[in-house]
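Postdoc handover notes: sequence design on the structure in folder B. Input tokens:
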């Protein structure tokens, strides 16, 4: 056997006995790591209809100054929590608009104001919401109006009596009542006012689904 043949034979034997090299397999994740990954994934959480929202206003409104479609802006006073998970953070922005505004009348009709919210901003995302309408009507002023009309009427009766007996008293009463009515006609009733910082409590009228990070 030649020297070259012997060398080739030895190399072949060495290669046959050398174990094959394999790339190391990636380590399988432990149970704790798998759970952590699942918990970190965002999930959808749905707030049911009827969920209460407490909103502190950043804008001011009144029945005699606001107009329909005026923008209403505010922030949540407290977080909305479902099963221990915060879905809407405190101070989340809430926006809506005036849906009705009616000033009080000089003869009849009370001041009336209604607003509704349509959007909430949470964690950089805007969500459309539907809430029940918040509405208020001003208190009536019938007793006050009666007093305003009655006092001048009595005064008129006294003046008429001095002027000319029963007939004068009757005329005087009519004059007094007319004067009293004039006072009521020139003075509008109470209005509904929502100053900045006022807190409204409204409820969702439809479910709201929010993407929540775990």
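Designed sequence:
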């Amino acid at each position: 056997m030649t020297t070259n043949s012997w060398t080739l034979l030895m190399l072949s034997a060495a290669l046959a006995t050398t174990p094959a090299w394999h790339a190391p397999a990636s380590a399988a994740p432990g149970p704790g790591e798998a759970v952590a990954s699942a918990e970190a994934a965002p999930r959808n959480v749905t707030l049911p209809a009827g969920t209460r929202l407490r909103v502190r206003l950043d804008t001011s409104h009144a029945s005699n100054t606001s107009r329909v479609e005026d923008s209403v802006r505010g922030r949540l006073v407290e977080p909305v929590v479902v099963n221990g998970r915060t879905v809407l953070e405190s101070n989340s922005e809430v926006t809506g608009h005036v849906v009705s505004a009616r000033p009080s009348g000089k003869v009849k009709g009370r001041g009336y104001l209604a607003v509704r919210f349509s959007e909430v901003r949470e964690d950089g995302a805007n969500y459309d919401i539907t809430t029940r309408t918040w509405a208020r009507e001003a208190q009536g002023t019938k007793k006050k109006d009666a007093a305003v009309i009655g006092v001048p009427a009595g005064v008129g009766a006294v003046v008429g009596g001095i002027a000319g007996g029963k007939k004068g008293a009757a005329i005087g009463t009519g004059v007094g009542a007319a004067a009293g009515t004039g006072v009521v006609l020139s003075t509008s009733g109470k209005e509904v006012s929502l100053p900045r910082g006022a807190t409204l409590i409204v409820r969702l009228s439809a479910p709201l689904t929010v993407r929540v990070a775990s």
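Context for whoever picks this up: Residues 145-164, 167-187 have pLDDT under 50 and may be disordered. Don't rerun without checking with the PI first.
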